[in-house]
Amino acid sequence: MLRRVAAALRHAAEGVAAALLATVFVAFVVQIALRYLFNWPVGWTTEVSLAAWLWLVLWGAAFVLRDEEEIRIEVLANRGGRRTRAIVAAVGAVGVVVLFGMALPATFDYVRFMRVEKSAYLGIRMDVMYSIYLVFAATVVVRALARLVRLWRDASRAMTPRVPPETPT
Questions:
Q1: Residues 149, 65, 134, 6: is their CA dihedral positive or negative?
Q2: Which residues of the chain have pLDDT under 50?
């Protein structure tokens, strides 16, 4: 049941990302058509493209990208064995939790402060525009915590001695 809900949420997140990408594409085509076919340059299409692109990148990184699809520099981890890789992964996850966690209050304050600014053409409040970063940052922290839990669970399993099943006598 939980897997089906997770799969449905993932599918919905991918749908949102696809809609955002379509928005970027349509705004780009409209911009070209208005500028070069009708000699009518407009700025709102650029604003729509930039807003949709910002949301697409951060939404995708938060909800669509899987852990194994993330780009990581694992030079140290790859030189060691399984235990070294787990330690490096745990240190990295703790670093992400601490640094993003420390930055969240200031980030929230800045996004909230941006409510006084609006975009030039469409009048979109900038706190709404940049609120996706708060969602992204919070999701990064939650995913790093989940990774720590997985690493802890894997380490616990590795340390638990395996007892062969008894044979009936």
A1: negative
A2: none
